[in-house]
Amino acid sequence: MVTDFKAMRVTALAGGVGGAKLALGLQLALAPGNLTVIVNTGDDFEHFGLAISPDVDTVCYTLAGKANTEKGWGLQGESWNVLTALKALSAPTWFQLGDQDLATHLERTRLLQAGWSLSQVTEHFCKLWQVSSHVLPMSDQPFRTLIRTQTGELLAFQEYFVRERCEPAVAEIMFQHAEDIQPAPQALKSVDAADLVVICPSNPWVSIDPILALPGMVPALKKKPVIAVSPIIQGKTVKGPAAKMAQELGLEASAAAVLGHYADFVNGFIYDQLDGDIFTSDAYPGIIKKATNTIMKNDEDKLRLAIETLKLGEFLINNIYHHD
Ligand code: GDP
């Protein structure tokens, strides 16, 4: 029985922008330390020899209150001296590295080279940035998401996402060596220990699926109350290529398709009220569906959506979901 949603231990699965927004709402709603976020590392890559973890950084910067919310990536009050100097050297500048952000990548790379794991580096940074939540990269081993385009090109995710601005039509999303890669040490434990798991409104195909592809993750989720929040509203994304990708892959770009994607292991689903009554009464009868305003423009919106999610979680735990 849960009587106070603030006291719940929640594990969230997240990518970058959409994931970080709801993660911040959950952090604001819960007692300090009660949120763990497992973050996609399929977008990680090396650039100028540096280890870059875009989604982990977006989540950490957001939870630390340091994120540039206008851009949706990077840090507030950033300066661009190194990028300007790189431009003058005709160096590749398609991936915009701010000066402060660069310090994160330099130090992460140094620590990884000294033998730290990505989980340890992330915990260390979060402590320095006074993040009260636990941020776990989904794996300490390199997991790479690749995009095969309809013209047959194979692109690393950031090449597709940033350099090519998501323009090439996608034929296939590939996870390199997914079956050989182990989840980060605390990831499955945090799912086991959670009262509730929340799938944030991140891109299902490239931000959440890499986490779900880790050995043991879906079986662990099946033992827990899980709520997913749709990143697709009226067939469109708030930001990013999820809807375009879905269409190119021959999938429907809709909140209903997102629910269908997660139907095997979710107990609750939150989608936007702008989608109205998209579910007939016989669609996924075992899953509780709730329509609300899911657009998060500011911290109040994030907190409100987080509280609605936690209240649905409370209802699931107390009325429907029975622990062994
Ligand atoms: P990325 O790795 O930076 O692309 O980040 P994510 O996968 O976490 O986020 C991309 C998804 O977030 C897109 O599909 C957006 O539609 C979704 N998104 C962004 N902002 C919001 C929002 O305010 N509400 C909802 N429901 N989805 C959002």
Q: What key phrases describe this protein's structure?
A:
38% helix, binds guanosine-5'-diphosphate, Rossmann fold, 324 residues, three-stranded antiparallel beta sheet, 12 helices
Name the CATH superfamily classification: CofD-like domains
**Beta-strand percentage?**
15-25%
| Main sheet specs | 7 strands, parallel
Terminal Cα span: 13 Å
Kindly state the number of beta strands.
14
* Envelope shape: globular
Q: Oligomeric state of the chains? A: single chain
- What CATH architecture would you give? 3-Layer(aba) Sandwich
Our Rg estimate from Cα atoms comes to 19 Å
The domain tally reads 1
What is the H-and-E element order?
EHEEEHHHHEEEHEHEHHEEEHHEEH
Q: Can you tell me the CATH topology?
A: Rossmann fold
Parts with pLDDT < 50 across at least 5 consecutive residues: none
Mean model confidence by pLDDT: 95
Which ligands occur here?
Answer: guanosine-5'-diphosphate
Query: Helix content range of the residues, please?
Result: 25-40%
Number of helices: 12
CATH class: Alpha Beta
Structural class: alpha/beta
Order of the strands making up the biggest sheet: 5-2-1-9-10-13-14
